[in-house]
Design goal:
single chain; alpha+beta; Cytochrome Bc1 Complex, Chain D, domain 2; 12 strands; disordered C terminus; binds dinuclear copper ion
Length: 313
Amino acid sequence: MLPHFFPHLPEASTMARPVDYLFWFCVAVLVFFTALIFLCIFYFAIRYRRRSEDEVPPQIHGSLPLEIIWTVIPMGIVAVMFVWGTALFIRNARPPADATQIYVTGKQWMWKIQHADGKREINALHVPEGVPIELVMTSEDVIHDFSIPAFRIKKDVLPDHYTSLWFTADRLGKYRFYCDQYCGMGHSLMRGWLYVMTPDAYEAWLHHGVQAQTMAQAGALLYNRMGCVTCHGTGKGPPFAGLYGKTVKLADGTTAVANDAYLRQMILYPGQKIVAGYRDIMPTFKGQLSEEEVLDLIAYIKSLGSKPSNTGE
Ligand code: CUA
């Protein structure tokens, strides 16, 4: 087994060991070549030292085989690091389609978490063991970065964008998460605990206490309260049933996929993309909805299904 260099830093996700193997491979290569170079320096310094005042060393004209060897071998090693690192990067960048989504909003200086069924927490994140989880993250103000060292993953959290970070926790326990991007005075306080629970314990935790509205239910209330229904329920605006995940034709002839980022843009900057067949009449909801409310609305639209219904169009 690999040495536990950081005994306080357990490997608690399916990503942790692969990242550590690559890390220790790189460390091994560096240590080997550093040692080799130092040994050569000492050996040559002694072996080829000047032995008398009038000794003149012979001229050397280089060696082609030697040049080839010390070009090809390092290139091969660096290529291994590149391919290995890229494979891990791609794996890390692609959440599995069946991942459970949990929503993370960063702000100076706290982490606000929403679970789809409505449970909310601050500076704490409960997840089930062995289930792929995708964190859909955004920021209310500046750039933050969500980092879980025990899982060996981190990702920037940006205002006006959704970024996603996924993992499968594979060890029960309690682990630290941090903000990893300097974001002002309270940056060092922007951290919390991640609890990996058995799926049963997680379900019990999720449904313990006062039953909150699900995100979709909260979104449905907003849909009525903010007046969305006035247009989107009457045909003046595009209908939402079956919209999620669909490819939408836009007035300028291009198309867009109705994913989280698209829906968020349409709610906050409706003039930027006009759906073909509709007029540019929607007011912006920028400043009127919090990031969490935008997520609730998206959850509501999602809950209306991802296939066109017969009342849809
Ligand atoms: Cu948020 Cu540092």
